[in-house]
Amino acid sequence: MAYGKPRHTIAGPVKVAYAERNTGAVATYQKRTSTLYPTSDSFTWSVEGTDASSFRIDASGTLRFTSSPDFEAPTDADGDNVYTVQVRVTPSSVPPVVQALPAPRLLKTVTVTVSNVDEAGQVALSSESPVVGTVLTATVSDPDSVWTSTVAWQWYRLASGSSAGTALESATSASYTPQAADVGSWLVLPGWAWRREEGTEMHTTLRKIL
Question: What is the pTM of this model?
Answer without folding.
Answer: 0.64
